[in-house]
Amino acid sequence: TVVRLREISLSFQIPRAYISNTPFCDISLTFSGQNLWHKAPNFPDGANYDPEILSLGVGNGRGFEYMNALTTKKYGATLNFTF
Question: What distance in Å separates the CA atoms of residue 62 and residue 29, rounded to the nearest whole number?
Fold first, then answer.
């Protein structure tokens, strides 16, 4: 069993009253993160078990733990302007 927080996103759109005197119709800011939390409760700490990782190269050994690292965490931000 593996439990994970795969992706989360938080977006904020500037109200039009604040940008009425600018050339923009909309302005929005989005923060996102991927692979932020991972828990394999039936495995010992440090086992790095992730069933989405194939550490044996090409083959059918998907999820086999062979000293592999977990999927990396990713953080991002997007600033969107609409004219």
Answer: 37
Angle at 68 between CA 67 and CA 73, to 5 degrees: 145
- Report the amino acid identity of residue 71: T
Q: What is the pTM of this model?
A: 0.67
CB 7 within 8 A of CB 38: no
Strands (E), the chain: 3-13, 26-39, 74-82
pLDDT tens for each residue of 10-33: 999 999 888 888 899 999 999 999
Residue found by looking up tokens 């609409």 in the block:
82
Give Cα separations from 38 to 15, 50, 69, 76 (angstroms): 36, 9, 12, 19
Each residue's pLDDT tens digit, 27-68: 999 999 998 888 878 777 766 667 677 666 666 655 555 656
Task: Check if the beta carbon of residue 55 is closer than 8 Å to that of residue 64.
Answer: yes
